[in-house]
Amino acid sequence: MRISLPCAALLAVALAACQPIRPDAPTPVATTAPAAASVPADDNLNAVLWVQRSAEYQAAAIQTYRAAAEYLDKALAEPHWDALVPSERDNHGHGLKPAVVLDIDETVLDNSPYQARLVRDGLEYSDPTWDAWVEERRARPVPGVLEFARAANERGVTLVYISNRAVHLKQATLDNLRAAGLPVADESVFLGLGTVVEGCEQEGSEKDCRRRLAGRHYRVLMQFGDQLGDFVHIDANTPEHRQALLEEYDDWFGERWWMLPNPTYGSWEPALFDNNWRQPREARRAAKRAALDVAP
Ligand SMILES: [Mg+2]
User: What is the distance in A from the centroid of ligand 1 to the CA of 249?
Assistant: First the structure.
């Protein structure tokens, strides 16, 4: 059959309309749009946008806190239920007041505006810019955490915050937590970086001494974090050791330990470039590219 030119054009349009569309396909851009020639590349652009603009991030955080709240009654009813690893507990924990231990950044407070500013300005993390952001006291609560905190409060469970925010940021942090609607029973529930724990020597930013301190006062029902180190001491920050820890405590997650999603930063990243932040950005990026799993 011979097809006239106008008919052929119509058929081509009709066939194009029948092409399957990937559910995650980008919206087509008009061909007349100017080329974005000078948009700087940033490793964190998608990750920060996912946290700030996706329904998926919110759903993941909400379902984590909602599921944890469902476990509170079970945890309270079982006297031996404990979310501290045995090596970090100095006592039996029985009969102590119940508490949950939470990390702060990207666990209860969302600092994505700080990350967004770094992307906008082409910068990387630095202590002065971080401290300035914390002093603003404008971090918002992570989705779902306020509902969990309410459920914990109703059951007499104290929220203890173990954070690597340094102790000189304590007041700004407590102000921000309160402004965000999170309960702060008293100032002792903030255990920042630099907290002195009698009989325990702090190793870098590891949190085990502060978990031990919390365990002296509380039966710890649950822990919440966005990093493996929020839950257990990391002897060596290598992909292999991190994987081994995940497997060792596999059945603690989703019962005693609750992980929040944070694609924007974390110790998983330097584990991919030998924890050497002194390397130029390009060298770190090259190491990360080399770590891609392309299913060879
Ligand atoms: Mg954190």
Answer: 19
